[in-house]
C-alpha cells in the first residue's frame, strides 16, 4: 500500500479499512455454517462506520446492536430490519419503543425487569415484541477482565433459572414472542472452548423450552472470536462451528453468531505521522499525531498494537505517545523503532475494531478521517472532524 500517497491525499491520523479483507473474513466464517441455516450478525460497536455497515449488509450480514443509535445506523446503511438484534443491559423506554416500531428481528432481554418494561411498552403500542434472552452461563472466557461478560459477577445476562422464568412468562404473554436464545461470554477469545461450553449449557435450556412448547427459532452464540495482535492463537473456525453444531444436538434452529473484532480487527490500520522524537534523560519518546482519543485500547486495556515504521535503520527502544495531556496517552510502550524524524509515517496495525468507534473529542481533538480500500482503490468514508463539528452543540449558548 502506498501510505505516503494516502497520507498526502487524506492527511493523518487516518483510519484505513481493507474492505476486501472484511469480505474475506465474513465469508470464511459464513462458510463454516453452510450446512445449516445461519445468520452472521456483525457487532456494530466494533466499528460502526456507515459505509462499512453497508458493505456488510451487501454481503447478506445482519447486525448486533447495543443501542438504538446503532440500530438506526444499521438500518440507514441498508441493513434489513429483520436481521437486527438489539442487546444491552440498560435500554431506555424510548429505545425500546423505537426498536418495536422498527420491527427488528428481536430485542435481547438482559433481566426479568426489562422483560416487564418491554411487555408494557409493546402493550401500549399494541404489538407483539419478538424477544430473546441473554443467558449468562457462568463460564470463564479466560480473557481480559474488562471484556469478560459471561460470569455471574459480570453485569450481563441472566442465570438459567431466571431465563426459564422469563421464557415461561413471555410464552403466556399476549405481547411477547420468545423467538431466540442468546449468550455472549466475552471478547478476544483465543481459546473458543468456553464458547462451546456455553453453547452446550444454552442448548440444554433450548431443548427444555421446546419440550414446554416454546418455539425458539434462533440459537445465538454471541461473538468473541479472537484475532492475532501479536502472537495470540487464532481460534480454529472449523472447530468453532463444529462445536456449536454438536452442542445443538440436531435441534433445528437458525444459528446466529455476532462477530465484531473477527470481521474488522485486522482489516484496519491507523496511519499516523511523527511530530518529533524527544528524550527525558535516558527515555526515548516518539510523539505522533494520533493519540488515545483516536485509539483508546492501549490506554484502556494496555492492549498491544504492532507499530511499523516505513523506514529502515538501527532500532532502539521507545514509547510511542500522543499529544494528549495524560500519562496514560500512549500507543505502544518499549517497542523497537528506527530513528525517526518529523513527518515520518508509522502504521498502527490491527486497529479496525474498537478503534474509531471508541474515539472521542478529548482535548478538543477532531476524530480522524476514515478511508476504504477496495479492489486497489481508495475512497473517503468518513470526513475528518472539524472544529466546527466539535462545537456545534454548544456554540449557540455563549
Ligand atoms: C461486543 C459484543 C459482540 C462482539 O464481540 P467481539 O469480541 O467483537 O466479537 C457480540 N455480541 C454482543 C452482545 C456484544 O456485546
From TrEMBL:
Cofactor: pyridoxal 5'-phosphate
Class in the EC hierarchy, top level: lyase
Enzyme Commission code: 4.1.1.20
Orn/DAP/Arg decarboxylase 2 C-terminal domain sequence ranges: 15-352
Binding site for pyridoxal 5'-phosphate: 224, 258-261, 354
InterPro entries xrefs: Ala_racemase/Decarboxylase_C (IPR009006), DAP_deCOOHase_LysA (IPR002986), De-COase2_C (IPR022643), De-COase2_CS (IPR022657), De-COase2_N (IPR022644), De-COase2_pyr-phos_BS (IPR022653), Orn/DAP/Arg_de-COase (IPR000183), PLP-binding_barrel (IPR029066)
Residues annotated as catalytic: 325
Coiled-coil annotated residue ranges, if any: none
Binding site for substrate: 261, 297, 301, 326, 354
Domain of life: Bacteria
Residues with PTM N6-(pyridoxal phosphate)lysine: 45
Any single Pfam family the record assigns to this protein: Orn_Arg_deC_N
Catalytic activity: meso-2,6-diaminopimelate + H(+) = L-lysine + CO2
GO biological process: lysine biosynthetic process via diaminopimelate
Pathway in which the depicted protein is active: Amino-acid biosynthesis; L-lysine biosynthesis via DAP pathway; L-lysine from DL-2,6-diaminopimelate: step 1/1
Span of domain Orn/DAP/Arg decarboxylase 2 N-terminal: 20-265
One Gene Ontology MF term: pyridoxal phosphate binding
UniProt KW keywords: Amino-acid biosynthesis, Decarboxylase, Lyase, Lysine biosynthesis, Pyridoxal phosphate
UniProt key word Ubl conjugation: no
Function of the protein: Specifically catalyzes the decarboxylation of meso-diaminopimelate (meso-DAP) to L-lysine.
Quaternary state and interactors: Homodimer.
Family: Belongs to the Orn/Lys/Arg decarboxylase class-II family. LysA subfamily.
Protein name: Diaminopimelate decarboxylase
Lineage start: Bacteria, Pseudomonadati, Campylobacterota, Epsilonproteobacteria, Campylobacterales
Gene name for this UniProt entry: lysA
